Please model this.
Amino acid sequence: MLRNKSALVTGSTGGIGLGIARALAAQGANIVLNGFGDPHEIEALRVGIAGEFGVDVIFSDADMAAPQQIRALFELSVARMGRIDILVNNAGIQHTAPAEQFPDERWDAIMAINLSSNFHAIKAALPHMRAQGAGRIVNIASVHGLVASTNKSAYVAAKHGVIGLSKAIALETAGAGITCNAVCPGWVLTPLVQKQIDALASRESIGPEQAQQMLLSQKQPSGEFATPAQLGALVVFLCSDAAGQISGAAMTMDGGWTAQ
Ligand code: NAD
Model:
């Protein structure tokens, strides 16, 4: 379905971003991987995806906190792939603390990586997508773009911003063959969430499995995690012709979290 198309997925060396990159590659898209991690493991991922799905895969460690590096990443992607049809803004970080104890530096980092990076990448992508007369932009927001939780002021503010940005870009690109949507996962078991499970386990003096169940039961009625592969499938759908009239949407995958 996506053969001869190219996708840039930020923050795709692990977690949800890797699930999305694999799902797009499985449909034939060439992939630009981005993120941090052990260089040998990342090279193995790059070669593995290319071999498994018969697509071109390149990697860049551009820092999504740095606008100049985001612009350079987009230029590199177009130069190496010839075109970028799909932009998935996925890179994100978390920090939890009450607002009055929230470190200024963590607030700034969350705003830069979780929100401003989406703007800078979209700004770089739009001239290219407009010239092609086609493009798909998917921003990985969160249920925390729709509702709040305690101790996550920066994350909640940034993710609400991502949904607002997605709507604004959807309006500006309407009728130009470009769509822009937000995806709002609930709990997904990735390193980002594992840290919160570990903190809960130590706070409550319980084991890791009990902490997982406690975390889910507090918010996610299904009692199950969503998976990176399920999120990848939703992104593939948003990149399909069938989704051509879906733009400006905030699509949840949260086991009923925001239905409450
Ligand atoms: P993760 O920590 O498992 O992976 C994050 C990825 O982003 C990694 O590849 C990491 O190297 C990369 N990254 C981090 N900082 C970066 C930077 N400055 N520049 C470039 N890359 C960077 O996280 P995840 O759980 O897979 O989260 C992915 C996205 O999904 C985030 O935007 C997160 O807010 C969102 N999300 C996650 C959950 C969840 O339950 N895991 C729920 C809702 C939304």
Remarks:
- Residues 10-17, 34-37, 63-65, 90-93, 113-114, 140, 142, 185, 187-188, 190-193 surround nicotinamide-adenine-dinucleotide (CB under 6 Å).
- The chain has two domains: 6-186+226-255, 189-225.
- DSSP finds eight helices and seven strands in the chain.
